[in-house]
Amino acid sequence: MSWLDIEGHDRVADRFRAILASGRLASSYLFVGPAGCGKRTFALRLAECLLCESTSADPLAACGQCEACQQVRAGTHPDLIFIARPEDKQVIPVDLLIGDDEHRGREGLCHDLSLKPFRADRRVAILDDADDLNEEGANCLLKTLEEPPPHSLLILIGTSAEKQLPTIRSRCQIVHFRPLGVDIAARLLVEQGVVEDLERARLLARIAGGSLTQAARLADEELWKFRGELMRGLAELPRRSFALARAVTACVEAAGKEAPRRRARAVILIGFAVDYYYALLHRLVAADATDPAGVEVDTSDADLDAAVTRAVSAAAGEVDGVAEAIDRCLAAEAHVGRNANLATLVDSWIADLADLQARMVAC
């Protein structure tokens, strides 16, 4: 049976159960794993267990009924601090960590975590979106990490330890979360009403790599349709590169007038391109290692399979070129986070991929 109805992470739950039983809970943890796999939910459930006012033989248990548990679930517990990157920001503002200029050092996560517990025997702070800490923000946390307040726990949540500064990584216990299994993710997508058909949920879960967040995005019919259009366009490069750039820009703008929504859409589309190039790279590497006719191909993702099949002959032997295309995509994604002009960025990104493809064809 899953721990507190959290699916797929019993191994992590067992680890914390053993830690609590031995009285060796650290002061800071870094939760890393794919977006949408349940890290934030796990952190909140762990906080609920630590702040629960009922007694249990299981050190990793929460009654779910006491006032403390109800406050944790409502986000009103005085000893639980939760911050995340605001939707209209690209990074976590320093003000959320150490207070604004007028209240510097007297507000924010670091200050609040240093206070004595109000009703529990410890304070718990959860910092979501730790990938979006800039260097200034990460440095604000260093004193708290180096000299943690007594009876405190700080949990950072990100997708990769490598995205954190070495000074952050070295001061946190790292906890790895695996992607959700396809069956688990598909069932949750149906239960949460994201999709109705279990088979479609399985397809979305598999393509999303077990990420509920990504699967929910793919469930958008218009976005799903454009995913296929984008992959076909990438397979046809360097032809029609201008038309593809215009189509990508239009899809980004269709996300809404707000810049954060457009930037989030741009990241999704770049992610689709990364999926395409990884699949192409896999096909090329497999073909080099064996008889191409014997390469096992997953055809359940029809759009991806068709695009890769179309491109593989032109890219034959160009493993390094395809790997460079992946690097170009990841560089474009990084520029989205630096507030680059999206229309200019899309034009440059598609032009780079077209030039790279032209060189591969010419070789």
Give an overview of the whole structure.
This protein has a 5-stranded parallel sheet with strand order 2-3-4-1-5. Helices cover 54% and strands 7% of the residues. It has 363 residues and is an alpha/beta fold. α6 (135-146) links the parallel β3 (123-127) and β4. It contains 16 helices and 5 strands. The mean pLDDT is 92. The protein is globular and about 70 Å long. It has 3 domains: 10-176, P-loop containing nucleotide triphosphate hydrolases (Rossmann fold, 3-Layer(aba) Sandwich), CATH 3.40.50.300; 181-212, no CATH class; 220-362, no CATH class.
Any descriptors?
globular; 3 domains; 363 residues; 16 helices; five-stranded parallel sheet; Rossmann fold; alpha/beta
Distance between the termini: 56 Å
Number of strands: 5
Biggest beta-sheet profile: 5 strands, parallel
List SSEs in N-to-C order.
Answer: HEHHEHHEHEHEHHHHHHHHH
Radius of gyration: 23 Å
What's the architecture of the largest domain in CATH terms? 3-Layer(aba) Sandwich
Itemize the secondary structure elements and their pairings.
Layout: H1 10-22, E1 28-32, H2 39-51, H3 67-74, E2 80-83, H4 95-98, H5 109-114, E3 123-127, H6 135-146, E4 152-158, H7 166-169, E5 173-176, H8 182-191, H9 198-207, H10 212-218, H11 221-236, H12 241-253, H13 259-289, H14 302-312, H15 319-336, H16 342-362
Parallel strand pairs: 1-4, 1-5, 2-3, 3-4
Helix pairs in contact: 2-3, 8-9, 9-10, 11-12, 11-13, 11-14, 12-13, 12-16, 13-14, 13-15, 15-16
